[in-house]
User: Fold this.
Amino acid sequence: MMRGLRAIPTSAIYNHCRPPSLNCSNTSFRCGLEKSKLGSRAYATAAPSRLYSRTRNILAVTLATLGLCLSYFYVTDTRASIHRWLAVPLIRVIWPDAEDAHEVGTHSLKALYRFGLYPRERGRMDRSGDLQTDVFGYTLDNPLGISSGLDKHADVPTPLLALGPAVVEIGGVTPHPQKGNPKPRVFRVESQQALINRYGLNSLGAEMVAARLQQRVREYAYENGYGIDEAAERFVLDGDAGVPPGSLVKGKLLAVQVAKQGTTPDGDIDAVREDYVFATKALARYADIIVVNVSCPNAPGYRELQKTKSLTNIMTGVVAVAKQTDRKVRPIVMVKVSPDQNTEEEVTSICAAVWATGVDG
Assistant:
C-alpha cells in the first residue's frame, strides 16, 4: 500500500516548515548580520587610517606654509645671496643686451613692489647710529646713495629706497620727451664688472615724471589716512606727515636731476637756462634735492655750461625758481659738474658761480 511513496528527509521538512524569516539560506538575515559585523570591523580599521591621513595632510600644509614664509623672508632680504649668485647672472644670460636687462630689472622691481615681494633691508643694521650722516639739516641713515641713470623716469624710487641707501637720485629729466642716443648705447665690460653708459639723456619729460611723483605722494597720503585729494597732497609736501616730502621716508632723501633739451642750441645760454627753469618748476615740489646736470659726457655741449658766466646764468634761474616752490620747505639745489674739471682755473670758475648764486652744494 505504501508503494510509490518516497521518504522525505526530516531536515527538508524542517526547512520547509520553518518561517521564511528564519531561513538564512534564502533571506538576508544572516547576510545582514555578517555585513554588520564586517562593517564594524572595517570602521574600526578605517578610523585610525582616516586620522593618520588627516594628520599627514595638516602636517604637509603646515610645513609648506612654513617653507613659503621662510622663502619669502629670505628672498625679500637684500642680503640674500640668491640676488647676487642667481638673479643677476640669470638676467645676463636671458637678456644679453644691457639696456634690455636694465629695463627688465626696473619693471620686475616695480611689479615685485606692487605685490609686496620686493627686496628690502630688514632690521636695523646700524643700531648704534655710527653710519648716520648730517646733510643740509637732515640726519640720514647712512652715507650711501644711488645716482641718476638707474631710475631715469621715476619708475621705482620707493623700491630703491627700500634697498637701504639714504639717497636715491632719479633722472636726468629733460623739459620735454627725447629719445637719447641711438641703440645700442649700453655695454657690459665683464672683465671689470662694469658698464659703459651712452644713453644720452633719454627722458619722458619733466611733466610726465612730475605726474608720477605726484601720484606717489597722493598714494602715500591715502595709505596713511590723510586722504587722496589736493589737501592731503599739500599736507604731506609741507612736512606735516613727519617725513621728507620727496623720499617720504624718515632718514632718507629723494634727489631729482634736471638737464637741458638736446635740441636747444648750446650757444643760446638764455634758452638753456629756460630748459633748466622749466624742468625745475615742474619737479621741485616733489624733490628733496634738485640736481642741475651741466656735465653729461654722453650729450654734446655740456662742457661749455661749466664756465663761470654760463653756469652763473643757469644757476641763478634755478635757485630763484626753487625758492618759489609751493611748500613750506624749499628743495636743496645742487650742481653736478664733470669730474675731470681739475685744473685750478676750472675749479675756481665753478666755485665762483656756485658761491655767487647761492647753490647749496
